[in-house]
Design goal:
With 546 residues, the chain is of the alpha+beta class. It has 4 domains: 83 residues, OB fold (Dihydrolipoamide Acetyltransferase, E2P) (Beta Barrel); 123 residues, RNA polymerase II/Efflux pump adaptor protein, barrel-sandwich hybrid domain (OB fold (Dihydrolipoamide Acetyltransferase, E2P)); 53 residues, Irregular (Dihydrolipoamide Transferase); 219 residues, Chloramphenicol Acetyltransferase (2-Layer Sandwich), CATH 3.30.559. The chain has 13 helices and 29 strands. The strands form 8 sheets. Strands 19, 22, 25, 26, 27, 28 and 29 form a 7-stranded mixed sheet that branches. Strands 1-8-6-3 form a 4-stranded antiparallel sheet, with no helix packed on it. Strand 23 and strand 24 form a beta hairpin. Helix 11 crosses helix 12.
């Protein structure tokens, strides 16, 4: 019976994410789209469905593991073989020196010298092309430093180049010793996995039997860099783990040092948990956590007194439950926004009587389309038009505090309450979509959020957020801005109120709205004009088509 290795699919990020749940066990029979595991990133949890039907033969991960796109999840029997990865046996056969047919077929040029002059391999040197190893991302990164030059003798583990991505800088070590004969790149170039770095003259190997295997490993690495099972891609990764800077008696890599600088932490104060006491990112995080939770009487960097722990059990029974990772991330983001952004909130009641009457006439068409029409699509559409008319709200302050980015697109986030916490999927190009399209998309995204099937990319790029309490209740609230956005709209429960029409009090359907905004980017007068315009659009929805 055929077996297939099921990998982690594209989850919208190249960063490792945590396995928080395994939904199957060995021996289970699953159908296509059945949930295999549940992953959780800093922004969302997501189920990974089975791409095909079959029987679970082996599970390669466990709860708590960190995985990324392409990592093996499990092995399935009886599954379709369309996406089966090359078997490990095939890789071994390709590299085995005793099997001449496979290397001849893939790299005949490399084999001829080994066959004609087997004894020379021990003494003669060879030229190998050294490529960029697996750096944890398929995207191109910048070469910020070249540490070697032609003619230079380098040892295994010596730094050849330094790369820098959006998230970290990293040294690329030499996988073996030799003499640099030619450089294939320069500072400022952009490279990816498999890009050539240099040509290295390597001394002859100890035995003739090993020479044919070493040479194909170097030539095969570039075209097969995307396959983590290849021996040539594995060697540089091991070497990378050895190469760290030891400046100032601290054993740490450049990415860790950059992270420490960003956190304002002195590496000399941290005990490394890695090999040879190497400082890792988790060590820095633990150090910061210790400062906040144990060593200080105030919240680090704020001067705010910390809330003391209390033994609530002394007053009666308690049931202590851990917060979900998503809940903790949300709390941290909201706390950061509240401390950094000067919030101002304005309130208004919007008369949506005509909107509600019109919505009632759509009931038959709504049933025919299979799409439920709530006030939310109208709120989305009106907010999009208001953002375009008042671009100060469709903007973000840059980190230097001296510039502001005005966005040429209108993507609106929708806060959704789920069993595991609050998530904010983003609806893109709201200004270009019809009410029916918005109704269908909001329903789909809300269901995906509750089913934990949102990808990180589904929650990025928002310009403005709507947080609706709907029928839950309340006359109003002060929503916290979802930074780096500069405003958020809170929607409370619709109520019928008496409104004076100039002659009499008449019952009108009034919707309470709360607009919180960043006072660094938006002034009160700007908010008043935005709110007035939004009110006009919702009070007379004919304006939505003007």
């Amino acid at each position: 019976m055929s077996k297939q290795t099921i990998p982690v699919p594209d989850i919208g990020t190249t960063d490792p994410v945590e396995v928080i749940e395994i939904s199957v066990k060995v021996g289970d029979t699953v159908k296509a789209e059945d949930s295999l595991i549940v992953l959780e990133s800093d922004k969302a949890s997501m189920e990974i469905p089975s791409p095909t039907a079959g029987k679970i033969a082996e599970i390669r991960v466990k709860v708590g593991d960190k995985v990324k796109q392409g990592d093996a999840i499990l092995v399935m029997e009886g599954a379709a073989e369309a996406s089966v990865a090359p078997a490990p046996e095939a890789v071994k056969a390709a590299a085995a020196p005793k099997t001449e047919s496979a290397p001849k077929e893939s790299t005949p040029a490399a084999e001829k010298p080994a066959e004609s002059k087997p004894a020379a391999a021990t003494a003669a040197s060879s030229i190998e092309t050294i490529n960029v190893p697996d750096i944890g991302s398929s995207e191109k990164v910048d070469v910020i430093e070249v540490n070697v030059k032609p003619g230079q003798q380098i040892a295994e583990g010596d730094t050849m180049i330094v790369l820098e991505s959006d998230k970290a800088s990293m040294e690329i070590p030499a996988p073996k010793a030799g003499i640099v004969r030619a450089l294939k790149l320069k500072e400022g170039d952009r490279v990816a996995i498999g890009s050539p770095i240099l040509e290295l003259e390597v001394a002859g190997t100890p035995s003739p039997a090993e020479a044919p295997a070493a040479k194909p490993a170097a030539t095969v690495s570039a075209p097969t860099a995307a396959q983590p099972t290849q021996p040539s891609a594995a060697a540089p990764v091991v070497a990378t783990q050895k190469t760290v800077a030891a400046t100032n008696d601290v054993y740490a890599g450049p990415a860790v040092r950059k992270f420490a600088r960003e956190m304002g932490i002195d590496l000399a104060k941290i005990n490394g948990s890695g090999p040879k006491n190497r400082v890792q990112k988790d060590d820095i995080k633990s150090f910061v956590r210790d400062l906040i939770e144990k060593r200080g009487s105030t919240v680090a960097g704020t001067g705010i007194p910390a809330v003391p722990d209390i033994d609530f059990a002394q007053f009666g029974g308690v049931d202590i439950q851990p917060l979900s990772k998503l809940h903790k991330i949300t709390a941290s983001n909201m706390h950061r926004s509240w401390l950094n952004v000067p919030h101002v909130t304005q309130f208004d009641d919007v008369d949506i009587s005509e909107l509600e009457d019109f919505r009632g006439t759509l009931k038959a068409e709504s049933e025919k389309r299979g799409v439920k029409i709530s006030p939310l699509p109208f709120l989305l559409k009106a907010s999009a038009l208001a953002l375009k008319a008042h671009p100060k709200f469709n903007a973000s302050l840059l980190g230097d505090g001296e510039r502001i980015a005005y966005k040429q697109y209108v993507h609106i986030g929708l806060a959704v309450d789920t069993p595991v916490g609050l998530v904010v999927p983003v609806i893109r190009d709201v200004d270009r979509k019809s009410i029916w399209e918005l109704a269908a998309e909001t329903a789909t995204l809300a269901q995906q959020a509750k089913d934990r099937k949102l990808k990180p990319s589904d929650m990025q790029g928002g310009c403005f957020t709507i947080s609706s309490l709907g029928s839950i209740g309340g006359l109003g609230f002060t929503p916290i801005i979802n930074t780096p956005e500069v405003a958020i709209l809170g929607v409370s429960k619709l109520t019928v109120k008496p409104v004076w029409d100039g002659k009499n009090f008449v019952p009108r359907k009034m919707l309470p709205l709360s607009l919180s905004y960043d006072h660094r980017a938006v002034n009160g007068a700007d908010a008043g004009r935005f709110f007035t315009y939004l009110n006009e659009l919702l009070s007379d929805i004919r304006r939505l088509v003007l």
